[in-house]
Amino acid sequence: MHELAVCQALIEQVKLVAHEQHAHRVVEINIDIGPLSGVEAQLLEQAFSIASAGTVADGARLISKTTPVRVNCRSCGQVTDALPTRLICANCGDWQTRVVSGDELLLTTVEVSRNIPTETPPGITEH
Amino acid sequence: MCDTCGCNVTHGNAHLLQPGGKLERTDSGHESVSVLRNLLAENDHTAGHNRQHFDRHGVLAINLMSSPGSGKTALLEATIDALGKELAIAVIEGDLETENDAERIRRHGVKAIQITTGSACHLDAHMVHDALHRLDLGQLDIVFIENVGNLVCPASFDLGQHHNVTLLSVPEGDDKPAKYPVMFRSADLVLLSKSDLLPVLDDFQPSNARRHLQALASSAPIIEISSKTGAGMDAWLHWLLEETAALEHRIGAIDPTTATSMPAP
Fold first, then answer.
1. What is A33-67 written as a DSSP string?
2. What does the alpha-carbon distance between residue B145 and residue B148 come to, in Å, rounded to a whole number?
3. Do A106 and B38 touch (CB under 8 A)?
4. What is the pLDDT along chain B (265 residues), one digit of tens a residue?
5. Which of A106, A113, A115 to mutate to test the interface with B (most CBs of B within 10 A)?
6. Which chain B residues are Cβ-neighbours of A9 within 8 angstroms?
7. Of B35, B155, B215, which has the smallest distance from its Cβ to A17's Cβ?
8. Model's pTM, two decimal places?
9. How far is it, in rounded angstroms, from Cα A108 to Cα B11?
10. Which residues in chain A have their CB less than 8 angstroms from residue B215's CB?
11. Residue A39's closest CA among B259, B156, B51, B172?
């Protein structure tokens, strides 16, 4: 299961965003996962609760959106829906296509809460 | 897909790049920050760095992937025996445990670096980067990276290789490309290994494997190969020599000074 490694990479990025935004808490993380990315959203979500423990992302909602598989046909030029195991042009049936959507593994947005004195988490001393 | 040229912007997320989309206040009073960064950007960055190392020294890097037991190490042994005098080869071996495969390779007179991943089911660019520090790329023509035997996880991690070569052994069945589309879609060359078993396992039809690959819009060439009998080895060695020459040509076209072997500072 490589989802734990992917999840750790996700959390590193989220920590960086939180740091840049001077956020004390991450509320929500939105990711796009394509069926052709090789990552299972459900396993990533399970790994998230373990990998995020004790980090700024602890307790955040992880919301993954599955992107549609779509291909651009090199023959007829049409962009059509496809299946992960059948990346054939739905218009003309040619197999020489290029995937234009469905292989994403993307951190899209991070919803953060900025420092408010009354919400200072334990362990952080303000000067 | 990368984070610099905009190719990661799809219909679904393009609105985030519109004015006002970068940082918005949500209904709950929190702030939403637009990121649009590949989750594996850190790995991909190191992979790009590895690729620069290979390019600078004109070393062809091949990432060998397959199920466990499909004959990756046997293929490498046969390849080293055939090309070892002509080209300087080294191997990076990825396994969960043991130095067994590296020891097999070393018996053929080439350097082998064993990466033991512990419980990790794939190699990543950082592991390969560490291994590269133990190789003198200036003295090499080809580096084979034998990935952990696994048709799932290794497909998601760029290592900095020039080409992915995926083995599909005859006992596994000809529908493996349909079952593991992410892996087989990433292949630049598919080797139908243990082809000497085709007469016995006659339910494996190479034409079916080809059909399943085409359904993935893959134009990767397919070679039926047996490390045991030597059948198909010529085509595989020819592909390797062509890719080695193509890399030299490509590197030479960018900077002629790199065509000569320069010692690292």
1. E-TTSS--HHHHHHHHHHHTTTSTTTT-EEEEEEP
2. 9
3. yes
4. 334 444 445 555 555 444 444 567 777 778 899 999 999 999 999 999 999 999 999 999 999 999 999 999 999 999 999 998 999 999 999 999 999 999 999 999 999 999 999 888 999 999 999 999 999 999 999 999 999 999 999 999 999 999 999 999 999 999 999 999 999 999 999 999 999 999 999 999 999 999 999 999 999 999 999 999 999 999 999 999 999 999 999 988 765 554 444 444 3
5. A106
6. 39-43
7. B35
8. 0.86
9. 13
10. 85-88, 95
11. B156
Q: B7 at the A interface (CB within 8 A)? A: no
Set of chain A residues whose Cβ sits within 8 Å of the Cβ of B164: none
- Nearest by CB to B181, which of A5, A9, A85? A85
**Chain A CB contacts of B185 below 8 Å:** 36, 87
b/e B217-248 (16+ beta carbons within 10 angstroms → b): bbebebbbbbbeeeebbebbbebbbebbeebe
Domain boundaries, chain A: 3-115
Min Cα–Cα distance to chain B from A50, Å: 16
Q: Is B153 on the interface with A (CB under 8 A)?
A: yes
Fold of A3-115: hypothetical protein PF0899 fold (3.30.2320)
- The CATH architecture annotation of domain B42-254 reads 3-Layer(aba) Sandwich (3.40)
Beta-carbon separation of B42 and A9 below 8 A:
yes
3-state SS, residue B252: helix
Cβ atoms B94, B127 nearer than 8 A: yes
Q: Say which residues have a Cβ less than 8 Å from residue A90's Cβ, sequence separation at least 6.
A: A78, A80, A81, A82
Closest in B12, B35, B178 to A13, CB measured: B35
Domain ranges of chain B: 1-38, 42-254
DSSP B2: -
